[in-house]
Amino acid sequence: MNMNLYGHAGRWLMIDCGVSFDEPLNPAKPNSLKHEVVCADPRFITDNKDELEAIIITHAHEDHIGAIEDLWLRWQKPIYTTPYTAAVLRKKLAYTAFAELVSIIEVNDGETVQIGPFSVTWIRFTHSLPEPFGVVIETPAARVLHTGDWKIDAQPITSAGFDSGVFQRLGLTGIDAVVGDSTNAMKPGWSTSEAECHDGLLAEVKEAQGRVVVGCFSSNIARLITLARVAEASGRYLAVLGRSLERNVGLARQFGLWPEHIELIDHTHVGYLPAREVLVVATGCQGESRAALNRLADDSHPHLVLDKGDKVIMSAIIIPGNELDIQRLTNKFKARRIEVVHAEQSDR
């Protein structure tokens, strides 16, 4: 999860406020008890909340935005973010009793805002969801680039491709430090462009004789759009299992990203379709115990039953620390003779 503080002249600026799921408080300690939801320890900034100027949210992933609804009342400070992330945040806050109290200030690519002693400029990156942004934070003491999540992608589906020129020009003007955030940044080689995922997924789906269930991050709008096109090309009906997936498809439609000619079927109807006409996207690709994939593996989902010969595609990277949970999930499917394909192990 993410929560970063930048300080200058006795004032503080928070970047992101996220959660993680099913994790121990101390991952380095063997056999640590796992907790359903975990966030960074907010005690320091809560004790010094009068010195906090504002909160910046770089993008709409849960590990960057998910703790706002639980922690905002401790600080009650304005939140700066871009329009798509603001829409996600407003939907999350709608379930609280204080949504109308939260000041959400929308900013755009290249915009500079003075927040107390911090001059903050928004810089567009590319990633798996709309509007991933980093920020350049400038004070008389230093100039820092805080990246947020990023992936260098020439064809990210939900936006224009990565613009290296922006960062070359930024380097020429002088940066004192880069605070980078990318799960795979230390791996050699290049990440697969989101646009390239279509052909591999289509091949896997066309090969399948039975139902196909795809596990992916619910916030990965680009992958959801790709899967909608795969469903159309393979002659299958598309449904999603999980409230977060339904919410994110709705947001994709709201921002004009969803291919409008492709309709989702009601998830309560998917169990009545012939097996070869079913393509389902489900939550729980990291092995989360209460998500849709685990319920399918346990044969306890109320709307869909998988059979021998069906296929599950894990279309997401394995986040470090989740290996054992994902292996347990995989084993449960395989014990029922349901094929499991992992993106990281596939040659497609």
From TrEMBL:
<keyword id="KW-0540">Nuclease</keyword>
<dbReference type="Pfam" id="PF00753">
    <property type="entry name" value="Lactamase_B"/>
</dbReference>
<dbReference type="InterPro" id="IPR042173">
    <property type="entry name" value="RNase_J_2"/>
</dbReference>
<dbReference type="InterPro" id="IPR001279">
    <property type="entry name" value="Metallo-B-lactamas"/>
</dbReference>
<dbReference type="GO" id="GO:0003723">
    <property type="term" value="F:RNA binding"/>
</dbReference>
<dbReference type="InterPro" id="IPR036866">
    <property type="entry name" value="RibonucZ/Hydroxyglut_hydro"/>
</dbReference>
<keyword id="KW-0378">Hydrolase</keyword>
<feature type="domain" description="Metallo-beta-lactamase">
    <location>
        <begin position="1"/>
        <end position="201"/>
    </location>
</feature>
<dbReference type="GO" id="GO:0004527">
    <property type="term" value="F:exonuclease activity"/>
</dbReference>
<dbReference type="Pfam" id="PF22505">
    <property type="entry name" value="RNase_J_b_CASP"/>
</dbReference>
<keyword id="KW-0269">Exonuclease</keyword>
<protein>
    <submittedName>
        <fullName>MBL fold metallo-hydrolase</fullName>
    </submittedName>
</protein>
<dbReference type="InterPro" id="IPR055132">
    <property type="entry name" value="RNase_J_b_CASP"/>
</dbReference>
<keyword id="KW-0694">RNA-binding</keyword>
